[in-house]
Amino acid sequence: MPAPVLDELLSEIREAARSVNAFARLQQVLRNSVRQPDAIANAIAGIDDDEVLLFEDETCSVWSCRYQSDVVFAPHEHCMTAHIAVYRGAELEVMYQCESAGLRHTGNKVVSAGEVLTLPPDAIHAVSAEGQSHSHAIHVYQGPLSGVTRSLFDWSTGARVEFSMDNFYAMRRQKSEMSEFS
Questions:
Q1: Is the pTM of the predicted complex or chain greater than 0.90?
Q2: DSSP secondary structure letters along the chain
């Protein structure tokens, strides 16, 4: 059961997702929420699992996400717009482009506490925390994420792999093993 502060945020997100201008309204709700991040960060810290679906319907999916600084989760797609609001620490988005020869690393984006990043539907990224501590974030997807067929991408070949949470966790790597950070 989410903390009251998360219930309130979920209510605002749900209302924004149903609005005529959902994209802009979701960005505004999340920007407002990161202005005083401690209550939400503490609520995220109180959730047992690192990746938790808090809400989903036909308009949006809302996930609580905590990432560690030494682990990077495999490149994946969402096939819909994703809004990432960081409340504690910093989340690292490792961006890729899919090419005929596989994946090409196109750069890293750090999203620090108090910031919101929006990824377009065609974005491919791996994710970790930046720095020495966990990141605490809310990810809002503009659609029912669990109902979309999407892919993870093999680190070595760039080949598509069926997205499942089991595969998501099985394909993680240690940051120290990756050329993207050397």
A1: yes
A2: ---HHHHHHHHHHHHHHHSTTHHHHHHHHHHHHTTS-HHHHHHHHTSSSSEEEEEE-SS-EEEEEEE-SSEEEEEEE-SS-EEEEEEESEEEEEEEEEETTEEEEEEEEEEETT-EEEE-TT-EEEEEE-SSS-EEEEEEESS-GGGS--EEE-TTT--EEE--HHHHHHT-EEGGG-GGG-
